[in-house]
């Protein structure tokens, strides 16, 4: 799309546009915008809120670069603007020597002004998306490799116990077992702690676990386990207590979130469907402690605020029996003690 009129508007006290990525929000859409432009106007103090009586309207195109830190308008040439260090919704740059400042209001709307040198005035813009797409942000949200824990820093959750625990929770909450994996998130590994990583120990010949005879007096090395029988299960509830489908995919912290296909749709595309599922209000957690060597077969149930992760209610139930029966009864006791908060479930999309 040619943009010759764009530069002319600036030469008669007009020109420019850009786009951005709002803090904590979705990135600004890339694509074709319609720009409403004023003629020469007194400079606006603070953010431009809009252009109620535009002098003219013209099409422009916006590109998003460098993970949203640079916005580029394509006119007679490429004009980059840089994200402010203090406000990620604010972008600054220049056009033909004139200062340009723009602000992002939403993924499909931004406003701004270019101050004309040598005069007490400028040109004001309001840009609204006509047709576009979500910019490529691949790799932008990935944490630095140095901040991630390797597999050597984690313990694998006993797979058989994990499967049993999912079934126990599903039965307690009335979730069909063939759908349990969509509503119930059970970690497959947990971070090692100082308690779980005591290092290599040695025991003397003749002691339990060391079959070596005393002849030669060799000790037996005992390595710390690479599996754990502590199982954590998480579920998400809406404000009415209905279970939401969950996932941890794409999360470096393995934190559970709502698995909503509607939320991953390109919201910048024409006629993009709205999110189908509500936000999570609370997180329900079960923590199973099946530590046979210590005679522990207990379950803790907890209810958290989904946003702040602050405990609302919690109860610890001691298993009175070994095995699955003890775990099942303890889970039921703990769940009822926090008020049996689940009222139903959302249909899977």
From TrEMBL:
Q: Region Disordered: start and end of each range? A: 325-349
Q: Where is the signal peptide?
A: 1-25
The superkingdom of the source organism is: Bacteria
Keyword line? Signal
Q: What is this protein called?
A: Uncharacterized protein
Per the UniProt record, the source organism is Martelella mediterranea
Q: What is the lineage of its organism?
A: Bacteria, Pseudomonadati, Pseudomonadota, Alphaproteobacteria, Hyphomicrobiales
């Amino acid at each position: 799309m040619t943009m010759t009129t764009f530069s002319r508007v600036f030469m008669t006290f007009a020109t420019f546009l850009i786009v951005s990525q709002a803090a904590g929000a979705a990135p600004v859409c890339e694509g074709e915008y319609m720009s409403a432009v004023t003629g020469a106007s007194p400079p606006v103090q603070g953010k431009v809120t809009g252009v109620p009586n535009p002098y003219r309207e013209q099409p422009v195109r916006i590109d998003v670069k460098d993970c949203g830190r640079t916005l580029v308008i394509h006119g007679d040439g490429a004009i980059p603007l840089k994200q402010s260090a203090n406000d990620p919704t604010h972008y600054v740059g220049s056009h033909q020597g004139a200062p340009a400042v723009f602000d992002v209001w939403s993924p499909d709307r931004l406003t701004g002004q270019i101050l004309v040198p040598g005069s007490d005035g400028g040109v004001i813009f309001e840009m609204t998306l006509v047709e576009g797409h979500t910019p490529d942000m691949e790799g932008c949200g990935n944490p630095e490799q140095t901040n991630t824990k390797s597999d050597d820093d984690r313990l694998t959750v006993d797979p058989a116990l994990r499967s049993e625990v999912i079934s126990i929770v599903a039965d307690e909450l009335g979730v069909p077992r063939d759908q349990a994996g969509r509503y119930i998130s059970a970690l497959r590994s947990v971070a090692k702690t100082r308690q779980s990583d005591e290092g290599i120990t040695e025991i003397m010949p003749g002691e339990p676990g060391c079959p070596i005879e005393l002849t030669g007096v060799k000790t037996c090395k005992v390595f710390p386990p690479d599996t754990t029988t502590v199982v954590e299960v998480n579920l998400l509830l809406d404000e009415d207590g209905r279970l939401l489908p969950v996932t941890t995919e794409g999360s470096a912290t393995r934190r559970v979130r709502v698995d909503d296909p509607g939320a991953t749709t390109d919201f910048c595309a024409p006629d993009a469907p709205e999110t189908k599922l509500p936000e999570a209000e609370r997180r329900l957690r079960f923590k199973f402690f099946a530590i046979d060597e210590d005679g522990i077969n207990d379950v803790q149930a907890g209810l958290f605020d989904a946003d702040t992760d602050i405990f609302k209610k919690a109860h610890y139930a001691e298993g009175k029996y070994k095995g699955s029966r003890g775990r099942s009864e303890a889970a039921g006791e703990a769940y009822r003690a926090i008020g049996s908060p689940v009222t139903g479930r959302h249909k899977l999309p």
